[in-house]
Amino acid sequence: MKCVKPLLLASAIAACVCVQADELNKVIQSSDKINQLATGSQKKIDGMVDSMQTRLQQYKTLNKEIDGLEIYNSQLNKQVNNQLAELDSLAQSMDQVAVIERQITPLMLRMINGLEQFVQLDVPFLAKERSDRVASLKSMMDRADIASSEKFRRVLEAYQVEVDYGRTIEAYTSLLDVNGVEREVDFLRVGRLDLIYLTRDGKLAGIWNNQTKAFDPLPDSNISQINKALRIARKQLAPDMLTLPVQAAE
């Protein structure tokens, strides 16, 4: 009977230890759950922080784009305003063009008639070519498919050709009535100063007399210089001094 108490005490202690162990396990389990929840919460917080950083960066980027678009729109507004001003100017110009076009047509007709009279009264070099040019201009004026600007350009071009004749030397071959016989001759044009012919056999030469509207015969002493001038005009000889007859102007 004396041994029963120690056994009971040991059993009680063991039972108490078991109870404490169970409670400790529960505490440990609860701590693990808390740690897991804390870890999950931290992950959520980290995710939210990352998301906020990303959105903040996107916000800053969008602000920069907005600033750039505002500058771009401001520049576009300036360009649009300039284009509107140009449109107004063009509209005014178009109204003026209509007036100018009504005035330019009579001017061109007068210019063509003046050119025709000039060719008829001028030294008769390249007569067919020049008369055909005038005829072409007259025909052009009746055409509706050619703009007035193009017509005016061609009239000015014809005038420029005539101006160039006065400062160039030229040699060309054509037919001419010489002493009642049509012969092939070489013509020498020196500006508008001289129009001289030389027969192909080199025996007869003449110079245009604008007063009599006919060719006057030249002596044989001029033939060598005329030949030389023809070769210079054809670029067969280098430019050199020439002694040629000149019709005196009145």
TrEMBL record:
Does the entry feature the keyword Electron transport, yes or no?
Answer: no
Q: Which first-to-last residue range defines the signal peptide?
A: 1-21
What domain of life? Bacteria
Record bears the keyword Coiled coil:
yes
- Supply the InterPro entries for this chain: UCP028069
Keywords, comma-separated and alphabetical: Coiled coil, Signal
Q: Which residue stretches, if any, does this entry annotate as coiled coil?
A: 59-93
Q: What is this protein called?
A: TonB system biopolymer transport component
Source organism per UniProt: Pseudoalteromonas tunicata D2
- What lineage is this protein's organism placed in? Bacteria, Pseudomonadati, Pseudomonadota, Gammaproteobacteria, Alteromonadales
